[in-house]
Specification:
The chain is mainly α. Helices cover about 75% and strands about 0% of the residues. Strand 1 and strand 2 form a beta hairpin. Helix 2 packs parallel to helix 4, helix 4 runs antiparallel to helix 12 and helix 8 crosses helix 12. The radius of gyration is 20 Å and the shape is globular.
């Protein structure tokens, strides 16, 4: 959007921030719907179909305001699908008698493989800054939405209304905040969601800005292929989650994720597409740990801590904190950081990435001091299976 549509950093941040804004309420809201009234797989299917129509519409606009509202509506139906997908997966695995901690990560990895294939196709076909990628996304969303209606039924769990206001409104999952460890966990999940949004928003722009000095470099010619190394790494780290969770527990796994973000941003700070290409590649590899160890592991941790009657709502709450509050403030504030270090249209990426690395380092110092959690390997076997 910066390159073709000439939006500034704040405008780009605001558009990416729609994912966070929508996640403030939509994942939790549709999680309630799936917990209480409508089969989860049907809610998932409708979200993808509506999103497909909106993505097709987005391919036709070039005005910032129009793009913002279309992408906000798209985010409102797309962001809940991440939590709903997890919920449907957990329910189906449970119905088939599988162990969720052991068997979910190898299944989840195929979503990342599909993402890698999409990135490579868009890049190698020259569609990186073309609206054609929106057509592809719309078609994929339509097919996925139709497929969702063919999945095994995931009906709402029977629940007894206890008469409380939260239960009457379907907001039972918020009771998790009463547990100190869960309150701290969700808070840092939100802060790590902001770190993820920084990468999503400005990773590609960062590589595009090297055109003037490294026009013939691989990183500039094929930025999506280089960025896809992050997803390739993600597929590998997903498979290690059962081992790391059992061996170290959620506290140490989250801490590994936080310091992985420090290195992710730090390597962007000192790397370049020339002699520093290996540093950029290393940053992509580290992303797998940075993302998976808080996102996938966090989802499994929430599944363990939440009652079966609020499983969809609990996943929606996790999404609200990470891709909602975290992504919204991450997109908004990171855009301002980029604009602050932009002079006459030239972005000082070293100062920008140094600032983001400092942010992640601060989280890494504070987290182990405030999150009190004693790891018991046997607890993970208690996750529904």
């Amino acid at each position: 959007m910066i390159v073709v549509l000439k939006f500034n950093g704040t405008e780009v941040g605001s558009i990416y921030g729609t994912m966070g804004l929508a996640s403030l309420f939509m994942p939790a809201l549709l999680g309630i719907v799936a917990d209480r009234w409508v089969n989860a797989e049907r809610v998932l299917g409708m979200c993808h179909i509506i999103g497909a129509v909106l993505l097709f519409s987005a391919s036709k606009v070039t005005d910032h305001n129009a793009m913002y509202w279309i992408m906000l509506l798209n985010s409102m139906v797309f962001m809940p699908t991440i939590a709903l997908n997890n919920t449907v997966s957990y329910i189906v695995l449970e119905q088939r008698g599988f162990n969720i901690v052991k068997d979910f990560p190898p299944i989840r990895v195929w979503g990342t493989i599909g993402f890698i294939c999409a990135m490579w196709m868009v890049d190698l076909c020259g569609w990186t800054i073309s609206p054609l990628q929106l057509y592809i996304s719309a078609a994929s969303g339509l097919l996925l939405g139709i497929y969702a209606f063919t999945m095994p039924a995931c009906p709402p769990a029977k629940s007894n209304n206890n008469g409380s206001i939260l239960s009457s409104l379907g907001l039972d999952a918020f009771i998790l905040f009463k547990k100190r460890k869960m309150f701290i966990f969700f808070l840092f999940a939100m802060l790590l969601g902001a770190a993820l949004q920084i990468t999503n928003t400005f990773g590609g722009t960062f590589l595009q800005d090297f055109k003037s000095n490294y026009a013939d470099s691989f990183a500039v010619k094929h930025p999506s292929v280089l960025l896809s190394v992050s997803q390739i790494s993600e597929t590998l780290f997903i498979l290690t989650i059962p081992f790391f969770l059992r061996r170290f527990g959620i506290k140490k796994v989250m801490l590994m994720s936080i310091f992985a973000w420090v290195f992710r941003f730090g390597l962007f700070w000192i790397g370049n597409p020339g002699s520093g290409l290996f540093l950029l590649i290393l940053s992509m590899i580290i992303y797998g740990m940075a993302f998976d160890f808080f996102n996938i592991s966090g989802s499994l941790f929430v599944e363990k801590e939440a009652d079966i009657k609020i499983r969809a709502s609990a996943q929606g709450l996790f999404m609200l904190m990470t891709n909602g509050l975290g992504a919204y403030f991450g997109g908004l504030l990171s855009g301002r950081v980029v604009d602050y270090f932009t002079i006459e249209g030239v972005r000082n990426w070293q100062n920008i990435w140094f600032t983001f690395a400092g942010y992640a380092l601060t989280l890494g110092i504070i987290f182990p001091l405030v999150f009190k959690y004693k790891h018991d390997p046997k607890e993970l076997e208690q996750i529904r299976h």
